[in-house]
């Protein structure tokens, strides 16, 4: 089981016990969640997800990739059909599991986007040995993509089908947006953490289930996910 948690907007991120916590520089506008989508596939190859409506010009798209397979998936890039540039935010979280199968979680971000109808994001990934993949895409306004702090760790319990992972990070700026992305190779549904809103829950029936959640905070301090 691997989780990613990002502190999105003013700048701090942390990866601890399988969590990734990031902070992106925010604009002067209020941070606002607009929409999100997820797409799960139970085969090898790339994964695509399409927003139900066109994102706003100049907004930010946050992309969470969860991939499980016998050869440990790798994501080579994230692209969309409007030629926006996506950069990976922080390291890739990886859980190797009790066998050779493994799960990775990675976060990508593009800000100041060009946009239009049928806005589709593609995770270009190498999982030729087969496996499952979830792709989460979320649109925000008032949020950028710059990051300044990192730390790392991992959670390695491969025996439980229900595992609650919790980690915390101390934000250095007020008015931050925390974003969490996670997946479990043993399946199961995601539920929202305390004070988080579950935006997407992958329950496609493939083995790699998970979820995407966020939370806005208004003061500096230590926050759990």
Description of the structure:
The chain has 225 residues and is mainly beta. It has strands at residues 2-8, 14-16, 19-21, 32-41, 47-50, 60-69, 74-80, 87-88, 93-95, 102-110, 120-126, 132-141, 168-171, 176-184, 197-202, 209-217, 221-224. Strands 4, 6, 8, 9, 10 and 12 form a six-stranded antiparallel beta sheet that branches. A four-stranded antiparallel beta sheet has the order 1-14-16-15, with no helix packed on it. A hairpin with a 6-residue loop joins strand 9 (93-95) and strand 10 (102-110). Residues 1-21 and 148-153 have low confidence and may be disordered.
Portion in beta strands: over 45%
Q: Poorly predicted ranges (pLDDT <50, ≥5 residues)?
A: 1-21, 148-153
The tally of strands reads: 17
Helix content: under 10%
- How would you sum up the major sheet? 6 strands, antiparallel
Radius of gyration: 16 Å
**Structural class by helix and strand composition:** mainly beta
Strand and helix order:
EEEEEEEEEEEEEEEEE
Distance between the termini: 15 Å
Shape: globular
pLDDT averaged residue by residue: 75
**How many helices?**
0
